[in-house]
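[audit] Reproducing an earlier prediction to check determinism. Same input, same settings, fresh worker. If the tokens differ from the archived copy the diff job will pick it up downstream; this log only records the rerun itself.
[audit] input (99 residues):
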Amino acid sequence: MAAFSATTDKDTGFSTIYRFVVIPLFLFSGTFFPISQLPLLLQYLAYATPLYHGVALCRDLTLGQVHAWVDIGHAAYLALWLLVGYLVGRRTFAKRLVV
């Protein structure tokens, strides 16, 4: 979102991102219903989203059902998204500020 905000001059794109990115992330994250109820293709899509991993990690920690390697995997996947987001955001902000 930070990288996108550096490339836009108006705020109209944020409502589009909310509608087509954020809402589906919540629907396919396992927050409201189990991922196992989705068709197989949508289950794989859900496993690729970072929000699914955040929900799974928080659920395990909250319920005390910690599975060490699985939760480390969730945390590593989230850290990877964080690193990529930071690098892309830094690059787009540098381009925007230099020009």
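[audit] rerun output stored. Observation attached for the diff report: The chain has a mean pLDDT of 91.
[audit] end
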